[in-house]
Amino acid sequence: MEDVTMVEDSPGLFEELSFTIIPNGLSEERLKKIETDIAASNGTIIPFDAPKGRIDRLKEVAYIVSETSDFPDYYRALDLLIHVVKPAWVEASLQAMKVKNPRTYSPDPALFMNEVVICCGNIPTGDKEAIEGGVLAMGGQIAPALSKQVTHLIALDLDDPRCQLAVSKRLQAMMVLPHWFDDCLKVGRRISERPYTLPDPEILIVEAGAIPSTRTSPQIRDATTPDPIHDSIPLMHTIHSEAPRAIKAFADKRLMFGDDLNLSSKLLNIFTGMIEAGGGSVTNKVTKADIYICNYREGPDYIKASQDGKDVGNLGWLYYLITHGVWTNPMRRMLHYPRPRRGIPGFEKYKVSISSYTGEARVYLENMVKASGAEFTKTFKQDNTHLITAHKNSEKCEAAAEWGVDVVNHLWLEDSYAKCREMPLTDNRYTYFPPRTNLGEILGQTEIDRDAMDKLFFPESRRPAKAVKAAVNVNVVPASSLPVRKEAHETVDHSSPVTDKTKRTKSTGNMQTPLPPRHLDGKENLTPGSRGAKDRALSKLHDAAPDIAQFEKEMKRKGGVIHGGRRRVEDENEDRSKKGKDRDSVASKRSIDEVDEDGEDEVTEDEVTEAPSRYKKAKKSKLTPIKFRMLVTKIERWIDNSEKESKDKARLRELGLFITDDFKKVDLVCAPQPVRTKKFIAALACAPTLVSTSYLDYALKHDKLPPAQKHLLEARDFEEANSIRLTEAVERAKQNKHRLLKDWTIFCTENVGGGFDTYKDIIEVNGGKCSLWKGRTTTVTASKRPLNTSDTEVSQNQEEDEGDILYLISDPDKKEFANWAKFRELAKKHDMNPRIVKTEWMLFVAMAQYVHWDPEWELSEDVVKAAK
């Protein structure tokens, strides 16, 4: 991008338009360049008053140029329908010789695709239309042809012609699967592209290993606690901090400290001295204050300051201003805003633990849990109600599944705190974990909900231009209003991303309409005062109607954005005899060299057809072949230490030992002692060798794998307690070969202890089928099992199977009596004998690897009543 072309070739482009530039985050050189470019195009610059941090002539401004939305007049500008754009908008408009759509350059954090320019490869037509519509709705841009401006190339494999062209031209666009956009939409945030990047997307690699940890999210730095005094955050070192060039945080500002801070006179004097040194002052009257500092969202001063539109924050926010010297919105970082005195209603009954978060991220979540009114526990126990985790690959998550504890991502806690009300777990956004993704990377991106604070704490707010809010709301499509999958726990089809037929919910309500592009062509190129804000918004709304309608149509389509069931264009003409060949599958794993940047001009659409038909693989460094697949459970060395876990697993992989969570295919199971966890019990169906933790200790210490026979698991106490000999069970598992429960259909109640999914996995790994029982006899079927005497290896472990017994796994609870009665009707209907059993029956069969029955395991109404 050449400066001469931008300035000299675009005279008059900004004629009659006025601009204010927010200097935060801009270097002196770039600031002057933006001012020069605007002036050269006949634009008017209204100066920004840096000491005050405000725009005095805001109503005269047409465009505010800012890197972020974090400046005092941001929300007031939205109320007045003033465009807020990033500096890149100025550069892009001058380069294109026309005013660009300001919405695609908005610094609004809700438009999480606003720096994305996508180009779609040879993907199904419906998926392409839906993805393009979604990117536009989230503030991104669409490129019909491949060019250097494209940031993301959406394709299924490297054989796509546009991928071939991007490689040959050494373009810097990231080549990702459509699944990336789908998962961004589900969580309402822009997540890392790493697991979705071609040629070897991690989400399609079964043996991908541990999910890598992330760096501390910049959104939570210096914002991890609402009460820094009691968290030992140093203060004195900030006294002599130099104020930044752009805004002196306390210049011409009057601050008031709330009584609930309980500050000592010494600390109050320190604060007062620093504020006065920065050009501000301290007052004890809220009507005279510009800033009000307090601990809790209560009291007449808090309400008055909030209603009058003053800046209200806590001590954590004050410390941030002192440290950085730049004004920031106290609602942007949630722990910078006063907390509710009694927490979030309903949270007082919860006990919350955290998994897979470390360092500042863990401190941030711990303090937010406490501020919400819930009890935080460092140790995860069976009486916990919630587990907040960045991904589900952890021991705590497995234990939570067994204990029936709700597993959620941090968005549930952040949204609940932002709105000061408990968000429902029925929203799949809070229980969805994108594959191979650490959600810690998007921590702290949620802001305090301004409208919720208005309604709950100061309902008679006199915030200006409130009536214009309806017009402003069209700027953003909230992530929560977007259609998402019905299933919270989706499994990835490792053979073909396109043929994944996972169902989605249809839209149940009208989606909020995104703000249309505000192209300033012709008569629209006028000063802001020439037309009313309402008329301007309504007159431009229809411009985006086709994109919006297409996006809503495609999102309602069965399968949603990517798994819509449509085939590639060339596949639609394939002969049906070739139906067995999956044309949409992701190509075999490839490796490409990093593409360097070159000076070539834009790639034209004509060049796409000239792409090479093949792409040569770059040489890969050879990896040690896998000798053993090991499943580990209850390993204390890695609890709450993901960094050590990642390093240890990498070293073990170099030795040929692959640590996996897939209990369907393992050679070794490692544990400190035999345990009744889902992973341990399910893995027994693989007939693994059971080893103690000393096996890992030896391997990591000596950098070689020891003989497993020297590190066998000591199981005497466990065997006596459970009446099982594990060595015999492993021998029977070798005979069974995952067929012990073949042709079995076992029913399980929804609220059974440990969770339905636990028993479903155990039954399925042994060859059976597990069906959820909700007492609906018309929706399920059952049939007698054939006694397979021809299969001698398995049949000897099924000798006690009577063939006509129908099992229901349940808990001894009076609430289940109605379900039991309906189950007996089902068995009678299919000429079978009902048997309602405790969970112990299933656990014994899976651990012992043979079918056995003990009358002690049977449940009935009389048994439950007698126990009570």
TrEMBL record:
It holds the Pfam family RTT107_BRCT_5. SMART domains: BRCT (SM00292). Residues 567-593 have a biased composition (Basic and acidic residues). One of its GO terms (biological process) is DNA double-strand break attachment to nuclear envelope. Residues 594-609 have a biased composition (Acidic residues). Residues 9-107, 107-198, 347-430 form the BRCT domain. Residues 486-536, 551-616 are annotated as: Disordered. Coiled coil: none annotated. CDD domains: BRCT, BRCT_BRC1_like_rpt2, BRCT_BRC1_like_rpt3, BRCT_BRC1_like_rpt4. GO terms for cellular component: Cul8-RING ubiquitin ligase complex; nucleus. This is BRCT domain-containing protein. It comes from Cucurbitaria berberidis CBS 394.84.
